[in-house]
Amino acid sequence: MIFNKDTAEKTAELLLQINAIKLNPENPFTWASGWKSPIYCDNRLILSFPAIRNYVRDEFAKNIERQFGKPEVIAGVATGAIGIGILVAESLGLPFVYVRPEAKKHGRQNQVEGFLHKGQNVVVVEDLISTGKSSLMAVEALRNEGANIKGMAAIFTYGFNVAEENFKNANIDLYTLSNYANLLDLAVQKQYISEDQQSALQDWSVSPSTWRQE
After folding, report:
1. Which amino acids does the record list as binding orotate (predicted)?
2. pTM listed for this prediction
3. Which pLDDT does position 104 carry in this prediction?
């Protein structure tokens, strides 16, 4: 679910402007999973544009507090959400921790890096939601450390049904600055893509795992 429509449209436009999101249905990208995709999203580019990263920071900070109440800790999911998570925590004057994909094999063998009290209220910041699997693994790691997860806030989601089911089953509320549906509407409006291209992009979102597979 998006925080609000205006933020969703503005965020989508900014991501397109800096090529953090690329749309190319004629020459699709191949994800690590093997899926063919007409969209590629790299939100880490946001950090290289001060005005845009400040906008994302401010929208996160404002909407997190409005939606979840002020948490006690902000947690970023490594590695894509560490940078923006730190900015959000700084804006809210809160501690920050981050979650590795898995525990280290050496040293203290931490998966959650930073100081976290059991029972603290945590909002998790993520950069991108596809199926939600890796994001929810981070939630599980935080819960194993005793955190009380208030919800997750992400920059962008593809809006897959499987992700909605995964978050529902994990009992985690997910809110995003923008999503795929708002991106496509904005991309047509601003002439980043044609209406024919929009149709192909909509077809992909219905069944991304089988789209244009041989």
Report:
1. 130
2. 0.94
3. 67
